[in-house]
From TrEMBL:
Source organism of this protein record: Cladosporium halotolerans
PANTHER family registered for this protein in UniProt: LIPOCALIN-LIKE DOMAIN-CONTAINING PROTEIN
Protein known as: Uncharacterized protein
Taxonomic lineage of the native organism: Eukaryota, Fungi, Dikarya, Ascomycota, Pezizomycotina
Amino acid sequence: MAAPPTVTPSNLTGTYSLNKKLSDSMDAVLKMQGVGWLVRQAAAYSAISVSMKQYERDGKVCLDVEQVSTGGLKSEEERVLDWEWREKDDRIWGKVKGKARMIKLSELEQDEYLTSGWTQDCLEGEVIEMLVESRTDTWTADQVWGMAEVNGERRQVRRIVAKKGDKVHRISIVYDWIA
């Protein structure tokens, strides 16, 4: 279902469903990140619901993300969009550090994959950039979250460029608006 025009990178509050038919396969990226076969299979075949709450606290924009997959497997994450490194022990990716911010597309490192194909409100306003690095391996994942038109409908999209050594994977993850 299309997201309403009120849903923008500066207001992602709502519930979404991962649209696997419109998204690229995550398997190669997950494999490169050292995620085991069983978890990759679960990711490939589970329905995933994502609830987000975006708000301001102490003058900083925060984004709480709760992801629930088939079988009730749940992960929760709070992201502070201030471009400060934060470390985390993640049960899927292991020890990682990450940072996030709101940024104009024109100010992003000019990777055409990350900067093209967004809706007008993203082109004129800001998107969310997240950078995640493994603390125990050499992979990185640069993500841009925003709105894009996919199959004629406005949807929340995450474009990801994941790297490890000379391996580079570019994938788009597409979400349907639920409420």
